[in-house]
Design a protein that fits this description.
This protein is 9% helix and 39% strand. The protein is mainly beta and 159 residues long. Strand 5 (95-101) and strand 6 form a beta hairpin. The relative contact order is 0.27.
């Protein structure tokens, strides 16, 4: 009976979906992108009454080079993630990161502690290169000194 249970557990573990793996992006041209936030104007607020506290920062044409050597020739799902803990952010609801893709990745948005699917398909080569236009929407009431947002990419390789 114990052998059958152990065999079933081993089989189930082998059939599980691969855990996400953080992709190395150290080959990207810029390791750090400094942005200057600006106050959001009333006409940009979409009717939101909190526009007085709204700030936005943008970074255009950010090139990201992801090391996908271990997955080349295979299929996988790539996600853009925002860490749950963001230094200088006093509330996770005070930040929304959105991006527009200039390539094969999908555009989307994420908040602290979440991730968004940006690619599902074949991993073509050793490096996956993409250019993104980032936008960081902030509620100034919950932003402290030293704000640093470090989105990252994860991959779930297909079995």
């Amino acid at each position: 009976m114990k052998r059958a249970l152990l065999a079933a557990l081993a089989f189930a573990a082998g059939c599980a979906i691969a855990a996400p793996v953080r992709l190395d992006d150290s080959a990207s041209p810029r390791a750090r992108v400094d942005v200057a936030p600006r106050w959001l104007a009333e006409h940009e607020s979409s009717g939101n009454r909190d526009w007085l506290h709204a700030m936005v920062a943008e970074a255009a044409n950010v090139e990201v080079r992801l090391d996908t050597r271990a997955y080349a020739g295979r299929r996988g799902r790539i996600y853009l993630a925002v860490p749950a803990q963001v230094p200088g952010l006093l509330s996770p609801t005070a930040l929304r990161v959105s991006w527009l893709s200039r390539g094969v990745f999908a555009s989307g948005e994420a908040v602290p502690g979440s991730r968004t699917l940006v690619y599902d398909g074949a991993i073509a080569g050793p490096y996956t290169v993409v250019r993104l236009d980032f936008r960081f929407d902030l509620d100034s009431r919950y932003v402290g000194p030293g704000l640093r947002v470090d989105p990252y990419f994860e991959i779930e390789p297909a079995p």
